[in-house]
Structures are given as structure tokens and as C-alpha cells.
Write a structure and sequence with these properties.
- By secondary structure, the protein is mainly alpha-helical.
- It has 7 helices and 2 strands.
- The protein has helices at residues 10-31, 39-47, 55-62, 66-78, 100-124, 126-137, 150-157, and strands at 82-87, 90-98.
- The protein has a two-stranded antiparallel ribbon with strand order 1-2.
- A hairpin with a 2-residue loop joins strand 1 (82-87) and strand 2 (90-98).
- Helix 3 (55-62) crosses helix 4 (66-78) and helix 5 (100-124) packs across helix 6.
- The longest helix is centred in the last third of the chain and has 25 residues, at 100-124.
- The chain is globular and about 55 Å long.
- The two termini are 34 Å apart.
């Protein structure tokens, strides 16, 4: 008897897709002898502007606390991939930006992700990959407002 797989919701599917890319990227970078980084540090690199970004802005873009972003930055500064520089717009803030080694790692990671997208296109078809990209690039607007009475329903379920 075969068990029918449980229905997975869209956030679960998107999470699995993200992990597929993260695992492939980390494995390829490890095989190339790159400095080991965590998935959080990979995400930080992905949202970092070329001219530099403040820790607060990195945290906002990543959807994590400022402390989590700061820890990821600290690890990457220690690894020589990022540096802190004065922010010309604010004497109180510092910009986080890539070092020369960080730029090299970023280029390598971008090339790996391009190859992974090509592999995905081979597996699921170019048209489906294009449709997926279009759906994800289309603005979704803000999340819907909670349904009337949803708060009471959640309390009752506890």
C-alpha cells in the first residue's frame, strides 16, 4: 500500500525550492574551495547593494532581526568577504560592502546559480521556468487582511 503524499502548501513548496538552490550553491562553492558560509550569510550576500548597505536595511530585506543580520555580517567580515565603511549619508551608520574576495565569491555564486537555473530549465522545461519566474516577479501586493472573526477562530482551535 502506498501512502499518498500530504498536500503541501505554497510556502512549503517555496521553502523547498529555496533549499534546493541553497544546497546546490553551498555544495558547488565548497567543491570550489570557497570560504564556507551559512544559508543566512548567502541570503545576506543576495540582498547587499554593490555600493554597500546598512545592517538595519539588510535585516529588513532579509526579514530577520538586526541582531541576526549583525551576526551574519560579523562572520563574513571575519572571513574577509565583507568590510565596514563610513556611510556618507549618516555619521552614525556604517555601510557593509564586499571586499575584493567577497566580490570574487559573489561572481562565482552568481555563475553557479545561473548553471542551476539552466539545469532546472532542462528538467522542467524553459517555458515552465519562465512562467515560474514571471509569477514570482509579479507584485503580489500586501498580504490580505485577517478575515472577520479569524482571531476568535484561532483562539477556539487552541
Amino acid at each position: 500500500m502506498t501512502d499518498k503524499p500530504a498536500h503541501r502548501n505554497l510556502p512549503q513548496l517555496l521553502g523547498e525550492a529555496r533549499r534546493w538552490f541553497e544546497e546546490g550553491l553551498l555544495a558547488a562553492m565548497d567543491a570550489a574551495g570557497a570560504t564556507p558560509v551559512s544559508p543566512t550569510q548567502v541570503q545576506l550576500f543576495a540582498v547587499l547593494d554593490d555600493e554597500g548597505t546598512t545592517v538595519s536595511e539588510l535585516a529588513r530585506r532579509m526579514g530577520v532581526t538586526r541582531q541576526t543580520a549583525h551576526q551574519a555580517v560579523h562572520g563574513l567580515v571575519g572571513a574577509g568577504l565583507l568590510e565596514q565603511a563610513p556611510d556618507p549619508a549618516s555619521a552614525r551608520q556604517r555601510l557593509i560592502r564586499r571586499t575584493a574576495d567577497g566580490e570574487r565569491a559573489h561572481r562565482e555564486a552568481t555563475a553557479v546559480l545561473t548553471r542551476m537555473e539552466e539545469t532546472l530549465a532542462d528538467r522542467i522545461g524553459t517555458a515552465l521556468l519562465h512562467t515560474l519566474r514571471t509569477a514570482l516577479e509579479t507584485p503580489w501586493g500586501p498580504p490580505p487582511e485577517p478575515a472577520q472573526g479569524a482571531r476568535g477562530t484561532a483562539r477556539q482551535a487552541r
